[in-house]
Design a protein that fits this description.
Elements (H helix, E strand, L loop, with lengths): L5 H19 L5 H8 L3 H13 L3 E3 L5 E3 L1 H24 L7 H8 L5 H11 L24 E2 L8 E7 L4 H10 L6 E7 L6 E5 L2 E5 L1 H6 E4 L1
Antiparallel strand pairs: 1-2, 3-8, 4-5, 4-8, 5-6, 6-7
Amino acid sequence: MSGHSHFAESTEEYLEAVYRLEREGPGVTTSGLASELGVAPASVSGMLKKLASEGHLEYVARGEVKLTQTGLEVAVRVVRRHRLAECLLTNILGMPWDEVQSEACMLEHAITEKMEARLIDILGDPKECPHGLPIPPKDLSTPQRAGIPLAQIEVGSDAIVQGVTEEVPEILRYLGDVGLRPGAHVTVHEKAPLGGPMTVEVEKRRHAISLELARMVMVAG
């Protein structure tokens, strides 16, 4: 996009990360943002002050930050285009779901309003990305994520996978290998005590998965 600098991309990436942590994670903290973006906490602190001075963020209790209306508008635009790009890469170009995250990170900054409208038309106005994360509405309302973590499903119960909360390639690759993708039917057969693994059945095959991983998989009964 003409005139779209690396500096502007950095701002968008920060606001996108704040949106994810604020609406889909545990809340926005300096350490949480540093982990999400893979940068030093000192760099995060400096950028947060800058974004606050520009009116994109405001500080709340305990040093946390939240998006202002201006910041929310930018964040929603970037998140929408990122997840639409993921849909394009998987649904149209046939890329594996564990490879689209990094590609979409580059595309999200180049998609214009006209391109976004065309993507929505071609893709059939999707409501979720290939990983089951909601595509936020343009009216800035907060989309409701259906489902609960697989870790909370009782032994003997069946559920349908809605999506995953992490887009780490290694995690997605493993989940894809065992069949834990959106739409898959899963049955919980066993839960080991003291936080041990769960034994689940997917596509007539049983797998033992860690409780940590089971917390990342969202399902509905």
